[in-house]
């Protein structure tokens, strides 16, 4: 058994080949890389098959030399900053270089140490903010730097906003060949609103078509940001200039170790081995192992177990002081991860009156919903287990049981956006088995404003409101006529950037936005770029808008969006009928203007997946009683006894068993028997429009 390069964690040694099997990592990199990777991966996916991975992930070793250096750094020499950028502009690569430069990880190891979730590696995107503490010697003095690598995609904006609470500054990374893009704009304003000091970093200057001068002008023109640091995170060129800029341009955190403890809960995740882990930022005071503390939100009391810094994995220290960000376990641990309310303030027990709690974070709302059903109803429990495993560390996913006449028992799942949804779908297909799963078309929440009134908190009479996330719960026509005042759908303010050349791009994009019921809000020309702002219904966005946008701009357009509230809409419920019986799982709420096109597409598509039967099958798309489209599957005559010729009875038995197993996957819609494969084919999406793996 090869034991060289084994990873020593605590008292156990795991051989290379086992380690690589359980972690999926190559072992050329240092042990630190491996442990870091193991640790990060467990935060998003708790894979049942990776017990060993999780066990090794949570191993903690104190390092007296590092701890002594950390303890000697006063608050004036601490800097907490995040790295923000448009997708793919190089945040994670730059973060890697900074970790190497400060000796936190070994140089030349595996890439993107902070992108460690399976999904991040597979798709080449960051979905979870990751943090790391570094020690950096500048002009002969040690500085304690706390870096947060943030996700670029709009769906994970809540992660970014939360990270800002632990930071005083931000590195705004811009690709030297692409310049300012949609998410650069969005991230800049978010960071600006939080009062963060921003350092522009122009990355990828090594590229042949890099235009650092043009991007410098753009940064000045768009954000009034001066003095960018020009780097190549890939080759390491000039990366050494980044940290001195952080020290000089990002203010030290405010706070005092002499004041009562005031600590903010920024993030939490679940470790099977040790339970709930908290990521905290200490604003005032000092917290040590054994301290009795309380949550000012829930009033629950806890005793601090182990605490320390992420260096880049957990490294136990004796205390965390004002200005620091670190991890913490309670002893006994928190019962469930939902007890860890992000944005909660903690103080020492008995000091509650002396501490003003933080306002907390805004809870992100689910905006994209799908139904998930097992093709074989016997597998319902297995699906439930898979969903529970995958949502353990992602509390932004909402889950509710759902029952469909056509598809049986399943789950209604809510996500922050389309990428969030498609990332989860991929994970669930991997975990549960892709061919065994039916996922319905994504939909958005609709708001129903009733004529009936209720009293609000101030005692004033206001119309009653209901949010509908499942078309099955949409009121019947007569209820809408008599009891509903209006129906609203969610809108977003979309920012689209495109190159000014070729000029046709602009025309195509305006056309696309108009076709999708968009209203132009702003159109700005920069030297080589155009930034458009449109108010668009979210429903249009989930219908592969990004894919279409990329298509008409040869992949050059970038898109970002923010919530723009609910607006009145002419919503209808489109249903698919099979021999007059509605197929509930396929019903969708849509705008009246798109109902006919969608209906026609539905009937043609469904027809192509339905097997002919002994009688004619009529497939229709309808709004209430009004039929919009119709297709017919002709009957055919089948000799059902053809295969059952006399002779070998075992053959006959096998055939019957096969039929029995097959029946589990059949569904009756009225008198029509439909194989789940038809639904699967009909509901299959090509997933276009989302970022593709880049490596
Ligand atoms: N040529 C060149 N490529 C770079 C440089 N920095 C990063 N890249 C490449 O650009 C791609 C994106 O880099 P990442 O670090 O993953 O970008 P990111 O901003 O973290 O991406 P998200 O996490 O998805 O938001 C990778 O293929 C990197 O290898 C650079 O300085 N020069």
UniProtKB/TrEMBL annotation:
<keyword id="KW-0378">Hydrolase</keyword>
<dbReference type="InterPro" id="IPR005225">
    <property type="entry name" value="Small_GTP-bd"/>
</dbReference>
<dbReference type="InterPro" id="IPR000795">
    <property type="entry name" value="T_Tr_GTP-bd_dom"/>
</dbReference>
<dbReference type="GO" id="GO:0005525">
    <property type="term" value="F:GTP binding"/>
</dbReference>
<dbReference type="GO" id="GO:0097177">
    <property type="term" value="F:mitochondrial ribosome binding"/>
</dbReference>
<feature type="domain" description="Tr-type G">
    <location>
        <begin position="76"/>
        <end position="254"/>
    </location>
</feature>
<dbReference type="InterPro" id="IPR009000">
    <property type="entry name" value="Transl_B-barrel_sf"/>
</dbReference>
<keyword id="KW-0472">Membrane</keyword>
<keyword id="KW-0648">Protein biosynthesis</keyword>
<dbReference type="InterPro" id="IPR031157">
    <property type="entry name" value="G_TR_CS"/>
</dbReference>
<dbReference type="InterPro" id="IPR035654">
    <property type="entry name" value="LepA_IV"/>
</dbReference>
<comment type="function">
    <text>Promotes mitochondrial protein synthesis. May act as a fidelity factor of the translation reaction, by catalyzing a one-codon backward translocation of tRNAs on improperly translocated ribosomes. Binds to mitochondrial ribosomes in a GTP-dependent manner.</text>
</comment>
<keyword id="KW-0496">Mitochondrion</keyword>
<dbReference type="InterPro" id="IPR000640">
    <property type="entry name" value="EFG_V-like"/>
</dbReference>
<dbReference type="InterPro" id="IPR038363">
    <property type="entry name" value="LepA_C_sf"/>
</dbReference>
<dbReference type="GO" id="GO:0003924">
    <property type="term" value="F:GTPase activity"/>
</dbReference>
<keyword id="KW-0342">GTP-binding</keyword>
<dbReference type="InterPro" id="IPR006297">
    <property type="entry name" value="EF-4"/>
</dbReference>
<keyword id="KW-0547">Nucleotide-binding</keyword>
<protein>
    <submittedName>
        <fullName>Translation factor guf1 mitochondrial</fullName>
    </submittedName>
</protein>
<dbReference type="GO" id="GO:0005759">
    <property type="term" value="C:mitochondrial matrix"/>
</dbReference>
<dbReference type="Pfam" id="PF00679">
    <property type="entry name" value="EFG_C"/>
</dbReference>
<feature type="binding site">
    <location>
        <begin position="85"/>
        <end position="92"/>
    </location>
    <ligand>
        <name>GTP</name>
    </ligand>
</feature>
<feature type="binding site">
    <location>
        <begin position="203"/>
        <end position="206"/>
    </location>
    <ligand>
        <name>GTP</name>
    </ligand>
</feature>
<dbReference type="GO" id="GO:0005743">
    <property type="term" value="C:mitochondrial inner membrane"/>
</dbReference>
<dbReference type="InterPro" id="IPR027417">
    <property type="entry name" value="P-loop_NTPase"/>
</dbReference>
<comment type="similarity">
    <text>Belongs to the GTP-binding elongation factor family. LepA subfamily.</text>
</comment>
<dbReference type="GO" id="GO:0045727">
    <property type="term" value="P:positive regulation of translation"/>
</dbReference>
<comment type="similarity">
    <text>Belongs to the TRAFAC class translation factor GTPase superfamily. Classic translation factor GTPase family. LepA subfamily.</text>
</comment>
<dbReference type="InterPro" id="IPR013842">
    <property type="entry name" value="LepA_CTD"/>
</dbReference>
<feature type="binding site">
    <location>
        <begin position="149"/>
        <end position="153"/>
    </location>
    <ligand>
        <name>GTP</name>
    </ligand>
</feature>
<dbReference type="Pfam" id="PF00009">
    <property type="entry name" value="GTP_EFTU"/>
</dbReference>
<keyword id="KW-0999">Mitochondrion inner membrane</keyword>
<dbReference type="GO" id="GO:0006412">
    <property type="term" value="P:translation"/>
</dbReference>
<dbReference type="Pfam" id="PF06421">
    <property type="entry name" value="LepA_C"/>
</dbReference>
<dbReference type="InterPro" id="IPR035647">
    <property type="entry name" value="EFG_III/V"/>
</dbReference>
């Amino acid at each position: 058994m090869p034991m060289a390069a084994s990873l020593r964690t605590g008292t156990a040694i795991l051989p290379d080949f086992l380690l690589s099997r359980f972690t999926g990592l190559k072992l050329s990199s240092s042990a630190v890389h491996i442990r870091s990777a193991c640790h990060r991966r467990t935060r998003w996916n708790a894979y049942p098959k990776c017990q060993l991975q999780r066990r090794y992930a949570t191993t903690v070793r104190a390092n007296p030399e590092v701890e002594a250096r950390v303890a000697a750094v006063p608050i004036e020499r601490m800097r907490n900053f995040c790295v923000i950028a448009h997708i793919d502009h190089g945040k994670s690569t730059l973060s890697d270089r900074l970790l190497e430069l400060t000796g936190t990880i070994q140089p030349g190891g595996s890439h993107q140490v902070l992108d460690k979730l399976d999904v991040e590696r597979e798709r080449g995107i960051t979905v979870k903010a990751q943090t790391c503490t570094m020690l950096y010697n500048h002009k002969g003095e040690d500085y304690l730097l706390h870096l947060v690598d943030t996700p670029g995609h709009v769906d994970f904006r809540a992660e970014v906003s939360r990270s800002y609470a632990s930071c005083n500054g931000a590195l705004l990374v811009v690709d030297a060949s692409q310049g300012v893009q949609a998410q650069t704009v969005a991230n800049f304003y978010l960071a600006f609103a939080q009062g963060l000091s921003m350092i522009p970093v122009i990355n990828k200057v090594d590229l042949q078509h890099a235009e650092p001068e043009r991007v410098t002008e753009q940064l000045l023109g768009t954000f009034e940001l001066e003095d960018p640091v020009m780097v190549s995170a890939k080759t390491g060129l000039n990366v050494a200039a980044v940290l001195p800029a952080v020290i000089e341009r990002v203010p030290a955190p405010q706070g005092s170790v002499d004041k009562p403890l005031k600590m903010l809960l920024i993030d939490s995740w679940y470790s099977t081995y040790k339970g709930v882990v908290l990521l905290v930022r200490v604003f005032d005071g000092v917290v040590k192992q054994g301290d009795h503390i309380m949550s000012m939100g829930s009033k629950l009391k806890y005793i601090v177990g182990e605490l320390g810094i992420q260096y880049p994995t957990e490294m136990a220290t004796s205390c965390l002081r004002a200005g620091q960000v670190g991890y913490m376990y309670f002893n006994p641990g928190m019962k469930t991860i939902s007890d860890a309310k992000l944005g909660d303030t903690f103080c020492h027990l008995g000091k509650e009156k002396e501490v003003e709690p933080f306002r907390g974070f805004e809870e992100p709302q689910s905006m994209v919903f799908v139904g998930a059903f097992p093709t074989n109803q016997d597998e319902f429990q297995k699906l439930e287990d898979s969903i529970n495993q995958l949502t353990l560390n992602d509390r932004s996913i909402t889950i509710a049981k759902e029952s469909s006449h056509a598809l049986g028992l399943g789950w209604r799942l809510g996500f922050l956006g389309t990428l969030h949804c498609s990332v989860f779908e991929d994970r669930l297909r991997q975990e549960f088995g892709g061919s065994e799963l039916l996922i319905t078309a994504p939909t958005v929440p609709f708001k129903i404003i009733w004529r009936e009134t209720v009293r609000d908190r101030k005692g004033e009479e206001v119309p009653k409101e209901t949010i509908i996330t499942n078309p099955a719960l949409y009121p019947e026509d007569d209820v809408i006529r008599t009891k509903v005042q209006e129906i609203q759908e969610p809108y977003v303010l979309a920012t689209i950037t495109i190159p000014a050349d070729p000029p046709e791009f602009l025309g195509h994009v305006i056309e696309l936005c108009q076709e999708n019921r968009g209203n132009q809000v702003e159109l700005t020309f920069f030297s080589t770029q155009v930034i458009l702002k449109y108010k668009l219904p979210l429903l249009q966005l989930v219908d592969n808008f990004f894919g279409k946008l990329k298509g008409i701009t040869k992949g050059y357009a970038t898109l970002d969006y923010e919530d723009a509230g609910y607006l009145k809409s002419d919503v209808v419920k489109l249903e698919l009928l099979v021999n007059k019986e509605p197929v509930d799982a396929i019903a969708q709420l849509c705008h009246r203007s798109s109902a006919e096109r969608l209906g026609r597409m539905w009937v043609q598509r469904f027809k192509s997946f339905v097997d002919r039967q002994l009688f004619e099958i009529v497939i229709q798309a309808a709004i209430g009683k009004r039929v919009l489209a119709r297709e017919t599957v002709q009957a055919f005559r089948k000799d059902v006894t053809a295969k059952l010729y006399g002779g070998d009875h075992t053959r006959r038995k096998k055939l019957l068993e096969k039929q029995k197993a097959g029946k589990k996957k059949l569904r009756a819609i009225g008198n029509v028997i439909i194989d789940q494969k038809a639904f699967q084919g009909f509901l299959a999406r090509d997933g276009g429009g989302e970022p593709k793996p880049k490596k």
